[in-house]
Amino acid sequence: xxxxxSDRFDVIFTKLRKRGKINEKDLKEVSREIRLALLExxxxxxxxxxxxxxxxxRAIDAKVHTSLTPAQQIIKIVHDELVExxxxxxxxxxxxxxxxxxxxxxxxxxxxxxxxxxxxxKWLKSQGHDCLLVGADLQRPAAVQQLRVLxxxxxxxxxxxxxxxxxxxxxxxEEAARLGKPIVIVDTAGRLQIDTELMNELVxxxxxxxxxxxxxxxxxxxxxxxxxxxxxxxxxxxxxxxILTKIDGDARGGAxxxxxxxxxxxxxxxxxxxxxxxxxxxxxxRLAQRILGMGDMLTMIEKAEQVFDVEQxxxxxxxxxKGQFTLEDFMEQLQAVKxxxxxxxxxxxxxxxxxEARNAEINDGELKKVEAIxxxxxxxxxxxxxxxxxxxxxRIAKGSGTQTQDVNKLLKEFQQMQKMMKSMGAMAxxxxxxxxxxxxxxxxxxxxxxxxxxxxxxxxxxxRR
Amino acid sequence: MxxxxxxxxxxxxxxxxxxxxxxxxxxSGLDDIAEPPPAPAGPAATTSSAPxxxxxxxxxxxxxxxxxxxxxxxxxxxxxxxxxxxxxxTEAEILDAELDLLRRPRLRDRLGKARAALAxxxxxxxxxxxxxxxxxxxxxxxxISADVGVATAQALLDRVRARAKEVKPRTPEELxxxxxxxxxxxxxxxxxxxxxxxxELNVWLFVGVNGVGKTTxxxxxxxREKAAxxxxxxxxADTFRAAAAEQLGLWAQRTGVxxxxxxxxxxxxxxxxxxxxxxxxKGADLVLVDTAGRLHTKVNLMNELEKVRRIIVDKSQxxxxxxxxxxxxxxxxxxxxxxxxxxxxxxxxxxVLTKLDGTAKGGIVLAIQQELGIPVKAVGVGxxxxxxxxxxxxxxxxxxx
Lengths: 465, 401
Fold this sequence. Notes:
The structure holds two protein chains of two kinds. Chain A contains 20 helices and eight strands. By secondary structure, chain A is of the alpha/beta class. In chain A, helix 19 crosses helix 20 (404-434). Chain B is α/β, with parallel strands linked by helices. Chain B has two domains: 65-73 and 83-104 and 195-400, 3-Layer(aba) Sandwich (Rossmann fold), CATH 3.40.50; 119-187, SRP54, nucleotide-binding domain (Four Helix Bundle (Hemerythrin (Met), subunit A), Up-down Bundle), CATH 1.20.120.140. Chain B has a nine-stranded mixed β-sheet with strand order 1-4-3-5-2-6-7-8-9, sandwiched between helices. Chain B is elongated. The interface between A and B is large, with 135 and 103 residues.
């Protein structure tokens, strides 16, 4: 994620830092960057135009927030606009007062309809709703077989017969009535939106089952075409909601924004993996962050939460701010960080880090060396490294199988870092009240200029005053 | 420097994550109220990425490799998966396909429908009487809306600008032609023939993300290659998706070629190994290997693919002539990322661009060829066997605008 929007803004706003406000010319430059970022995220270019206009208007209307830098302010505006556009109307499946409730799935070939049918059945089951799956995809070889296997795994009956889609759909309804199933999910064949014949067939299936929910299944990796697809399907069988699939990859998912914008129907669910339970209600804010190129940060946070002892970390943070962070604390945190995966992969997930840091080759060997050195110190030395004199250095080097230069380097850099952190302590403290409603993207690249040997780096959650 | 980075990272994670996470939690708490019932909050349900990764998908089945069976073309298919008139349809389709093969349809002919929908994209721009910024913007937009991508579009237009200084186009029409010829140059001289050496056992491996049309592509190619007089064996190494092997089996049946398959959840490597062995014993010329769709971000699954490759090359000592990335034409900028990752793990030799019969233009292949040097080797334009055709840069570029 080298082109995250926050990074782009960083460039523009470096020159703005001294000024507190954004003027029109800056805004234009910013708009261009937003446009590029959205296009790279596969948002349709016409949708981008409209979106950028709205962001500009909001930026002009926005009151000057003293607690936010211009960069943070713009990112917040873009983020909020994205969340609103993506999730303006909260989506829910329409449940018919008179069962059965019928859900019809439609979409292009390979968007994941059959899989979603199985997942949806499983999800509904977990919510206490029993259902019947109807396989009306008689086009793709073995599609019905696939649905049958899924139905079996989920524990939901599947109805289909080798006739034609409309008949299957109609008989499926009868079958649901016979079995007394409150919900019917109808899987249809994938079709191109320009294939008139198949689109007419879809309309006929729709008429046969009178669905309460027509859901468009769309692949998160879809490009500019998403708009055409959504418009055409919506024109043929009005769409009530969208299922966004395959968002577990690294696609930015801008297609979702395009679809939402052109048909105005909510995105209800997201397919988040290959397993049948990897399916969940859609979170607009997560996708917003993903489109902005900050999805990785979320992943990192999720991982961190699994491995960090929150209280312990909070204490460490406290000490850090007061400049009392010791090598002992460092060691503890390092162990936790290691549990999150390889360091280089974690570094890549932190937006706003200087390029030098990101591209640095950090292998486990280096890490082991650092660990060995610290482990060769006595507890007292770890707590107050200034104790370490020449002979102690030699002992530590010998004990860890390294050179005294290595020990010196570590100590020097640790000292530098401590100094840096002390000077940033005030800012880190300010973070708490300083960044309202800015989840996961607090001015990262745009924040502090960084001190010492920390070139142009930001510090998370540290708005610069 | 490295040590400093280590220190900084640790510190950032401590200070940053906790603060940010607290904020985030408080936000997502709000979201939950506004939304349908939250998803099961188990830690397993989170979108994990690389290092943690999904647990291996291959359900261990000790009997799997024993259960391999060769399906002969005349075996009765799953009855419920077919229409009663399927036999007739199949025959008609084969006939159609063969006719199509004789006709050697060209991309241009097959894109007629889609192109009608597109004709307007640059129509208005072309008719203008002079080249101004609007014209340049219009061209850029056309490129972007064809999924060429911003970076590639800009690089391309920079080159066009440079050439325009020499050629001096007078009208937008001429400028558009210049853009087209620049793209054709870009796609240029790549070798688009499928690697095949007569008298040897050739293997083509098909890879790609989920739902791009790998199985269908193999079905079509099997038909084409069989028509060319080659003896084919299909390897159904997609043991993950429900009924994927059945789907390939039905294609094998239509085509009249052998398919080697295992049980669902079997080790794809063992199926490939058996398929190559079977092909060898029968004196076949070509093995087409279908693999499960996988997102390029899933480390375990990419490792699995590497293993399949190793089995073909090292263990089976077969000639892996092609590793084909199947790419859906509707794919946006993520296509480049897919190509990069698959290339890194199994060394992609060519792209098969599918579903080009819609209005999607598949412009991302420009970026793929530009950055990775991987050419498009075939194009899918429909669901029947004859709908796999050669890639022609000129026709492709015509269809872009």
